[in-house]
Amino acid sequence: MAGVVVVFDFDKTIIDVDSDNWVVDGLGATELFDRLLPTMPWNTLIDTVMGELHAQGRTLRDVADVLRAAPIDPQVVAAIRAAYSLGCDLRETLLRLISRVLVEESQLLPLDCKLESLPVAVQDGMPMPLGVKN
């Protein structure tokens, strides 16, 4: 399988939900999200909701805890592991910080698997994507 690259998107591929909506609902911000949704672009909306959650004392650990409860199809896990065992170069498109928490702790992928994720910084305890424009 040399030269084969398998790219996974996190939302609705690795987990069977949209992670933004899952986190918003799981952290109790659905009402705020629904109220702001018609008023701003998606990335601004998510940034605003995450800022409010942070102001309420929520942390990156809280976000990771909610994501850990997201549904993952065992067949997806088996397919990812099989592709890796065949020598495929696996990539995923999740924010690096959340990726590290979920992948390393859940052992969904082998620890030596290459994760080329969106770069992220932590600002006031919450993940902030770098280079992602609204």
Automatic annotation (TrEMBL):
Molecular-function annotations in GO = phosphatase activity
InterPro entries on file: HAD-like_sf, HAD_sf, Pase_PHOSPHO-typ
| Coiled coil stretches, renumbered | none
Could you tell me which Gene3D superfamilies the record lists for this protein? HAD superfamily/HAD-like (3.40.50.1000)
Q: Which Pfam families match?
A: Put_Phosphatase
What is the protein's given name? Uncharacterized protein
Q: Which organism is it from?
A: Triticum turgidum subsp. durum (Durum wheat)
The organism that produces this protein has a lineage beginning with: Eukaryota, Viridiplantae, Streptophyta, Embryophyta, Tracheophyta
